[in-house]
Amino acid sequence: MPGSADREGNHWELRRAADADAPAIRKLTREAYAKWVPLIGREPKPMTADYSEALRKHRIDLLYVDGKLSALIETVAEADHLLIENVAVAPEWQRRGLGRKLLNHAERLAASLGFQETRLYTNQLFAENVQLYRKLGYRIDREEKFERGVAVHMSKRIVPSGEGGLHAAMNDERMCE
């Protein structure tokens, strides 16, 4: 996906974020998560994050569509897995496959780093996110109550395919792309 086009002629480019990208990351993330504020009565964690600090500690990959920042994924290499800390998609690009592309990217990244698992968490009230993650092969590992809600912790096992590509094994052993 580093530089490709889709069937509609949109040009996609994926690149790793640099320090100078922190304001654009914050802006995109705030726009992407704004829809959740009325549901949970507060700003979700990614809306309040310090992205200058995150860029020093985490990996953030930016997805541009036709030259415009449209989505991002923030990952953290933990001891035994790759944590997907944040997936943010601009409102005008939501429900068009960008989040799925970025999750696939994270799974390839995890495998390239030698990990056999990706993990993520989301607010239980973000039901459409939980549904998407389950559809993509993530399983619910646990639910954890916190001060202002319930976090749903999910994971997906990553295994190399016989063709040298990567696939993620789903709970029922079917393979997904």
Quick overview of this protein structure:
Helix content is 29%, strand content 38%. It is an alpha+beta fold. Strands 1, 2, 3, 4, 5, 6, 7, 8, 9 and 10 form a ten-stranded mixed β-sheet that branches.
In words, what does this structure look like?
The chain has 177 residues and is α+β, with helices and mostly antiparallel strands. It has one domain: Aminopeptidase. Helices cover 29% and strands 38% of the residues. It has 6 helices and 10 strands; from the N terminus they run E-E-H-H-H-H-E-E-E-H-E-H-E-E-E-E. The protein has helices at residues 22-33, 37-40, 45-48, 51-57, 98-112, 127-135; strands spanning 3-5, 11-16, 59-65, 68-77, 82-89, 117-123, 139-146, 149-160, 166-169, 175-176. Strands 1, 2, 3, 4, 5, 6, 7, 8, 9 and 10 form a 10-stranded mixed sheet that branches. The two termini are 14 Å apart.
CATH class placement = Alpha Beta
Question: So, the CATH homologous superfamily?
Answer: Gcn5-related N-acetyltransferase (GNAT)
Mean pLDDT: 86
Total number of helical segments?
A: 6
**How many strands, which pairing sense, and closed or not: the largest β-sheet?**
10 strands, mixed
Oligomer: single chain
Q: Could you name the CATH topology?
A: Aminopeptidase
The assigned structural class equals: alpha+beta
Uncertain residue segments: 161-177
Q: Kindly estimate the percentage of residues that lie in beta strands according to DSSP.
A: 35-45%
Number of beta strands: 10
Provide the gyration radius in Å. Answer: 16 Å
Can you tell me the number of structural domains?
1
Note the overall shape: globular
Percent of residues in helical segments?
Answer: 25-40%
